[in-house]
Design a protein that fits this description.
alpha+beta, 5-stranded mixed β-barrel, 4-stranded mixed beta sheet, 7 helices, 9 strands
């Protein structure tokens, strides 16, 4: 007899298969990251079609046969509708999901990572925050939760808690003064360093509760993206698509 489970989870990835089926990658509170076969999910008469779309957070009833989970029932809890009418915001949401999938181990409960993704998507969908701020804060906190936390309390070489012309060494994952250490890394400034520390060391529920002017935000964004790339040693197709939309923005406005 197949085992049954009721879980809450968000769709990180969907793959069409056969005539109307999907294979879903879900990040669940109870089981961690799992693959689920959703038979008939692309059919108009599917009982759980809305649950089987990207970034849908739902309650699922699953059955398990050997190494596979199968969807039996589903009811949506949050669809993040604020993203779905804005292609740029939706593309960034897809990147947050792909990045989360990259750091989640298979089949291990990861409630902090799920909570972080839900908070990030809510901020992007409903809070009206600068997408660059959400992206940078999400990247830095996600990597911190996944075990890649940068050491940002002081210069790693001279110990100064207020590094002179601070740099984030994205490979070593530490902070340094401009004239300390072997060189390299991404330049910060006092404001972008303060924001980085707020994200890494602050309350996870308030990581988006800050503001930066244009230049410190530019530095924080560049540093967080470079740090993510260096630590995970890979690129992301969803990030490439999101950045392609960013590049089109001035032309559309002009």
């Amino acid at each position: 007899m197949a085992e049954a489970a009721v879980v809450r989870g968000i769709v990180l990835r969907e793959t069409d298969t056969k005539e109307s089926d999907k294979i879903l990658t879900l990040l669940t509170r109870e089981l961690g990251k799992i693959s689920v076969i959703a038979k008939g999910a692309r059919s108009r008469r599917s009982r759980y079609g809305a649950c089987a779309q990207m970034l849908a957070y739902s309650e699922w009833t699953l059955s398990r046969r050997k190494d596979w989970y199968f969807a039996r029932e589903g009811s949506t809890l949050e669809l993040f509708q604020g993203l779905r009418g804005n292609l740029e915001a939706l593309a960034l949401g897809f990147y947050l999901a792909e990045l989360t999938e990259a750091v989640c181990p298979d089949g291990e409960a990861s409630p902090e990572l799920l909570r972080h993704l839900l908070n990030g998507l809510y901020a992007l969908s409903a809070l009206g925050k600068d997408p660059a701020l959400i992206k940078a804060a999400f990247e830095l906190k996600l990597l911190s939760l996944a075990g890649f936390e940068p050491l940002a309390d002081a210069c790693a070489y001279c110990g100064d808690p207020d590094p002179k012309d601070p740099f984030l060494d994205t490979v070593q994952g530490n902070l340094r003064c401009k004239d300390c250490g072997p060189g390299g890394g991404m330049p910060l400034c006092p404001d972008s360093l303060a924001a980085l520390r707020h994200i890494v060391y602050g309350d996870p529920g308030r990581i988006y509760a800050f503001r930066l002017s244009a230049e410190p935000m530019k530095r924080l964004s560049a540093a967080s993206e470079a740090f993510t790339h260096a630590q995970l040693d890979r690129g992301f197709s969803t990030l490439d698509f999101y950045k392609s939309l960013e590049k089109r923005r001035p032309c559309q406005n002009g």
